[in-house]
Amino acid sequence: MTTENFASQAEILKLARVLGTTPERLSYLENVDAAELQTFREQVTDTLFDANLAALERMAMASKLVPSPILAKIAEKVFGPLLCARIAGLVDASRGVDVAKRLKPQFLSDVAAELDPRRASAIIARIPLDTVVAVAGELVRREDWITVGRFVGHLPDPTVRRALGVIGDEALIRIAFVLDDKSRIDHVLGLLSEARFRGLLQVAAADEELWAPVLDLLTHLSEKRVEQWSHLLGELPPTLRERIEETLDQAS
């Protein structure tokens, strides 16, 4: 499997989520360029979010008249996660943050799964750290790697560093595979200790199902990071080590 296949495979997983279908039904797209799949996925997302836009804008305007504590109750009991996700990008950022911090982590996790982070980036970046960590923990418990991966690029480093504490090694590998902004991988892994990165490799070595995600992860590391951690490859089983070396050669 080439590095391009890795990228297309990850995009198919995310496109399947948007379309509400299974990745297997979209397997015929595996040879389509990953960038084209991403563009299509974003177009589909925009179409869904722009449907009934005028009505959503009126609801966002009317919400200004309701105190935040009451609005938070209405959001959970009446609106539901899908409608909240559609409106989130239309409200003032400070207002959105004030409401979000009053919502239960379980409900916020439901909203996050329906949200387009591009439209609510200003709100996401300002949500209290403890709230983000609680939501990250809930999404990991649900094994919702795609939702976590969509938000990483919109969070500041201190928040990402704290969130890494509630994300296990296997979960981190799976999240990195479906990360929306793969250019962030090197930076995020740079927040890890060498011992934590060694743990990632050891988890992958013990489960062949994780080989593709970890190989994809390694292709997005900078040359500096690869050199920094290259000595860890010698600790891996020969078969996986050879696969890693072949993959890095392809990517270079």
Question: What would your notes on this structure say?
Answer:
- With 252 residues, the chain is mainly α.
- It is built from 16 helices and no strands.
- It has helices at 3-19, 34-50, 53-62, 68-88, 93-100, 105-114, 121-124, 129-141, 145-151, 157-164, 169-177, 185-189, 194-205, 211-219, 223-229, 238-251.
- α4 (68-88) runs parallel beside α6, α8 (129-141) crosses α10 (157-164) and α11 packs across α14.
- It is globular and about 65 Å long.
- This is HEAT repeat domain-containing protein.
- It comes from Amycolatopsis speibonae.
Describe what is shown at a glance:
This is HEAT repeat domain-containing protein. It is built from 16 helices and no strands.
How is the topology of this model organized?
Blueprint: H1 3-19, H2 34-50, H3 53-62, H4 68-88, H5 93-100, H6 105-114, H7 121-124, H8 129-141, H9 145-151, H10 157-164, H11 169-177, H12 185-189, H13 194-205, H14 211-219, H15 223-229, H16 238-251
Helix pairs in contact: 1-2, 4-5, 4-6, 6-8, 8-10, 9-11, 11-13, 11-14, 14-16
